[in-house]
Amino acid sequence: MDTGNVLSSLGVEGATAAAHALSLPAEAYGNDAQLEVMWAMKAYNHAEVYFNLISSVEPKFLKLTKSDEQIYTKFREAFPDLSIEVLDPDLLKSADAKEKWRPFCNQFEGVVDDFNYGTLLRLDCKKDYTEENTIFATRIQFYAIEITRNREGYNDVVHNANSKTKQHKKDER
């Protein structure tokens, strides 16, 4: 789906209304298919921007929030042995995992904007966002895992692959 065309077709008033609708609490809605599509587009756009960012900039230099240091420290305190290179969905979504993640996530309420918004997260950090390699997670889970991947060098694979592709294209000219 080309989200740019969908958004531009809404016009300024429609896009403003959509942005406002997405800022309301979930309790304000039932199961509205149009709203779900808008949420999916927003999550997809966030994922696309982030992947382009780690492809273009050395991940270790990225700052995703003003609270990166706190997020990283608290994440590694709460999940010291969690393997983040290839995530096991059960370690994010099972009932036991949710009990462990809940206090971690909730400590960032009021600290990180939209900490509990739905966001797409890559399972294998060496791969792009695909249906098989993507899971829906909260924004703070995304930040915790991706900040850690950036700091610990796991996202370097994506950056290096893109750098080699750009160099190869330059060499062909």
Automatic annotation (TrEMBL):
Residues 35-159 form the Polysaccharide biosynthesis domain. Pfam families: PBDC1 (PF04669). Coiled coil: none annotated. GO terms for cellular component: cytoplasm. This is Polysaccharide biosynthesis domain-containing protein. It comes from Phoxinus phoxinus.
